[in-house]
Structure formats: C-alpha cells, structure tokens
C-alpha cells in the first residue's frame, strides 16, 4: 500500500512541477473599421481546391456561404486556405497548397489580385505591419522561412 501512495505522490510532483504559468497568446489587433460581421475562412479538404469564405452578419444573424466564389464568377479561392488578416478594406488570405496570398476587398469579397509564392513555398501565417510592409511564413523543401511583401502593391519584397 505504501508503494502505491509513494508512486502517486511522485507522479503528482512531476505533473504539478511541469505546469507553468500560461502566457497569453498574441492576438491581432482589431481592424480600425467598424465591424458589422464576421468573415470565416474555411480551409476545405486537402488537395481538393475547395477553400471558401463565409460571412456571418451580426446585424441580421444570417450566414452567406461561398461569398468569394459568388463575388468572383464562381472562381475557386484555392487549396487549403490557412490564415486571413484584414488591413484597411483588404483581406489577405494565405492559401498554402495554391502557393499564394489572395487579396480581396472585404466589403465586396472581390479579388484584388494575388501574390504568387510558388518560388518561396507554402504560405501559413500573415502579419501586416503597415501599408508598405507585411510578412508571411512559408514552408518549402528547404525548411521554413519568412517572405516580406508590400500589401499596397501586392508584390514580394524579399525572402
């Protein structure tokens, strides 16, 4: 019996000592514009080219599915959308298996262009500093990296 109590005591010490204070996650600041809804990016199924965007209206409590396709003549968003950042009236969407950042107007969901990342790798997470500087993490066969881009001109600046 003492053996079991001692074992439980030792395991408890390891479990409790391995805990640490949680660090608050980094949260992107809210967009400066007044929000009237929520944009939901769905990655879809891997290798199925079926990522989509839905819009939930806080005013009407309604959901509009596939707003990107509807605004762009049924064009596909791409394969495996991972992240979206809103800066001003533009949304920047990392679509990793399509090797691009799709840029949309967040009011109409129309495509404004895209940043081709096929030379650099698969985009994962986006961070936008200001109108002339943004960063996106990429994965490629050489490992991970960070690509710097210009959100206004929708062009790559450097790796």
Radius of gyration in whole Å, from Cα?
A: 21 Å
Strand order across the largest sheet: 4-5-6-7
Portion in helices? 10-25%
Question: H/E series, N to C?
Answer: HEEEHEEEEEEEE
C-alpha geometry: globular
Give me the secondary-structure category: mainly beta
**Residue-averaged pLDDT, rounded?**
82
Distance between the termini: 62 Å
Low-pLDDT stretches are: 23-34
Number of strands: 11
Major β-sheet annotation: 4 strands, antiparallel
Oligomer state of the chains in this structure: single chain
Helical region count? 2
Percent of residues in beta strands? 35-45%
Structural descriptors:
four-stranded antiparallel beta sheet, mainly beta, globular, single chain, 159 residues, 11 strands
Any overview of this molecule?
It is a single chain. The protein has helices spanning 2-18, 67-71, and strands at 37-42, 52-57, 62-64, 81-87, 90-95, 100-105, 111-116, 122-130, 133-140, 143-150, 155-158. The chain is mainly beta. A hairpin with a 2-residue loop joins strand 8 (122-130) and strand 9 (133-140).
Task: Describe, in short, the structure shown.
With 159 residues, the chain is mainly beta. The protein has helices spanning 2-18, 67-71, and strands spanning 37-42, 52-57, 62-64, 81-87, 90-95, 100-105, 111-116, 122-130, 133-140, 143-150, 155-158.
């Amino acid at each position: 019996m003492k053996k079991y109590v001692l074992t439980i005591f030792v395991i408890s010490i390891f479990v409790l000592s391995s805990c640490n204070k949680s660090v608050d996650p980094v949260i992107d600041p809210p967009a400066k514009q007044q929000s009237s809804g929520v944009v939901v990016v769905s990655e879809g199924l891997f290798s199925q080219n079926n990522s989509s965007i839905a819009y939930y209206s806080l005013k009407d409590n309604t959901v509009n599915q596939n707003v990107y396709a509807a605004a762009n003549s049924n064009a596909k968003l791409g394969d495996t959308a991972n992240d979206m950042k809103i800066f001003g009236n533009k949304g920047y969407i990392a679509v990793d298996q399509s090797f691009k950042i799709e840029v949309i107007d967040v009011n109409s969901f129309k495509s404004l262009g895209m940043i081709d990342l096929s030379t650099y790798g698969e985009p994962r997470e986006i961070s936008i500093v200001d109108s002339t500087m943004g960063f996106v993490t990429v994965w490629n066969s050489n490992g991970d990296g960070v690509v710097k881009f210009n959100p206004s001109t929708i062009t790559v600046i450097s790796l």
